[in-house]
Amino acid sequence: MALRPTRPQSRSEQLAERNDAQQDVFLREVDDALREDELRGFLTRFGKPLAALIVVALVALAGWLWWTDSQKQAAAERGETFTMALDQLEKGRVDTAYKQLEPLVKDGKGGSQAAAAMLQAGIALEQGRKDEAVRTFAAIAANESAPKPFRDLARIREVGANFDAMKPEDVVARLKDLAVPGSPWSASAGELVAMAHLRQNKPELAGPLFAASAKDKEAPESLRSRARQMAGLLGGDAIDDVAKAAGIAPAGASGQPAAPAQN
Length: 263
What we know:
About 75% of the residues lie in helices and about 0% in strands. The protein is built from 11 helices and no strands.
């Protein structure tokens, strides 16, 4: 089918179309001018406060970046100082190590400060300065900003260093919450609490604690060995550990002791 030929626009139609296009351009220019005036008015009214806010934000960001970097650098320096003190200890230069730890104890924070103070207290104890060591351990235990593992360990070390001068009931009160199953310090604290019970003439309370310490596979072997001996003397249930330590297999079904375990 043939297409109908397109009718050419009349003169009036052409003028109307051009007029519409000119109006569109004019309206866009007016709209752009209004937006520019609004922006200029906004900047005139709020430009200075906005600029001040941007400057404050940039300064705060720069300050935060500087503080973060300085914290990382300070932590690295504290770690290096502590490592140098340990190196001095390994070389037998105890006094030098003690002095190198001073800045960490005075100006350190959290774990680094507690670790340095613990090491200083240990040095003081080894050098016979028991009173100083006990005071330092007590201060760490009471320092709420120190991590809890350091506070608990310091409490045990404080009681252990000062055990002979303490009343047995004070030892029990100080460590009883650590001498419980599930505590990472149950063996160390349990040994001290058990010894305090013996001083109170309460072997029925001491025996189970020694037996539990003897069976604690996370405890140092020297502590477990002492606990086995004490549990055996007190009739505690540490027979399996004692048999294993002696290289003897458990009793057979007949109730007779089995032969020594073969290596």
